[in-house]
Amino acid sequence: MIPGSLAKRYARALMLMAETPIQREAFGRGLNSFNGALEVDDGNGTTLGSILESERYLVSERRGVLQSVCRRLGVEPNVMAFLVYVLDRGRIAGVPQITRFFNEMADELAGRIHATIRSARPLTPDASHKIKAALEKATGKTVVVESVVDPELIGGVVAQVGSLVLDGSVKTQLENIRTTLGG
Amino acid sequence: MVKSRLRQLIGTFGPLLVTMTLAADAWASPEGGEHGGEHHGLTLFNWPSDADPRIGLVWLLINFFALVYLLYKLIIKNLIASNHERHDTIRTELEQATAAQASAKAIVSEFEAKLETFESERRQLLDLAREGAERDRKRIVAEAEAEAEKILAAAKATAEREAEARRQQVEAEIVGKAIERARELLLNQFNDADQRRLVDGYATDVANKTIEGGV
Fold first, then answer.
1. Domain co-membership, A13 together with A88
2. Which of A127, A180, B126, B136 could make an SS bond with B199 (beta carbons 3.0 to 4.6 A apart)?
3. What is the residue range of A158's domain?
């Protein structure tokens, strides 16, 4: 963990390295891939993040591991160089925060928002597409949908966009009926 | 005291006794015979002597008036003065007694008036006490009635609240059971077609909304 303001500065620096929106998206994908790899457990409770943070290994060894992983993940060379720089500065523990701030900045620049859609049963591609289109029309932004199955809802859909919740579930309708009837 | 009184008696009766002795002596003398002469009738200024033992009328009168004077001076005057003094004393005492009687009458009148006043005040106080007691009784009764009404109203309100709460509880139980039953039915009978219909409706509703600021 590193201070939030510092993580934001690193994220902004990486953002400035991207010359085009396409490159920015590529940077984001690479950064998110590496960030995901940091938490992967080898089965013995050891993660890539813990190895890179450990002082038991030389910096050069850790740098080699990082570069090796980045190449395996197909991370953009600029992003890899950025991560090496972060490692050399002893801030590798702040990669999850940097990734989060980078994603927020990228979304903002791309006019993109994330929505979590919960439904009682898995949504069909058609249903997911309809909801995504409806949310994009309502918000005027590109919506990145993440689907979650929640059988407690009985039926219907609940979409959460930022702090806004659009509830169309049967469970909530039953609760509304209960409230209306004075239960 | 006794000595002074004795002296007064001697002073009073001494001259009288001398005069009477002299007079008796004159009258006791023989009317002539023994001294050889014959003297009859009254004389005016003759002083008794061996020759003529008669006493003149003037001397008798002088003797009488002297006696009267002495009686007056020594006895009658004192008696008059004493009578006056006693009269004055009695009159003073009488006046004092009269004044005391008047004072006593005034005091009696005053006390009678006071008694009447006291009686009037007693009656007044009794009346006031009765009125006050009656007022207090009415006030206490009114307060008790008001308190009873309050208690009754509070009890009624409590009963109504409890009844309402119980009614709501029963309603909630009924509604809860109905909702639970509806939930079970929905869980058993909800199918993909229902889900599609709900998703379509949901998508239409969301599309018709305008989310300010794009969230």
1. yes
2. A127
3. 111-180
CATH number at residue A104: 1.10.520
- The C-alpha of B185 sits at a distance from chain A's nearest C-alpha, in angstroms, of 10
Residues in B touching A156 (Cβ below 8 Å): 195, 198-199, 202
Residues of B engaging A, defined by a Cβ cutoff of 8 Å:
168, 171-172, 174-176, 178-179, 182-183, 186-187, 190, 192, 194-196, 198-211, 214-215
Chain CA centroid to CA A51, Å: 22
CB distance from A163 to chain B under 8 Å? yes
Do A102 and A169 have their domain in common? no
| Total structural domains within chain A | 2
Task: Using CA coordinates, name the residue in chain B closest to A168.
Answer: B202
State how far residue A38 is from chain B, nearest Cα, in angstroms: 31
DSSP secondary structure letters along B152-206:
HHHHHHHHHHHHHHHHHHHHHHHHHHHHHHHHHHHHHH--HHHHHHHHHHHHHHH
pLDDT band at B33 (very low <50, low <70, confident <90, very high): very low
> What is residue A58's predicted lDDT score, i.e. its pLDDT?
92
Instruction: Report the percentage of chain B scoring pLDDT > 70.
Output: 80
Put simply, whether the predicted model's pTM sits higher than 0.90 gets the answer no
Q: What is the pLDDT of residue B22?
A: 59
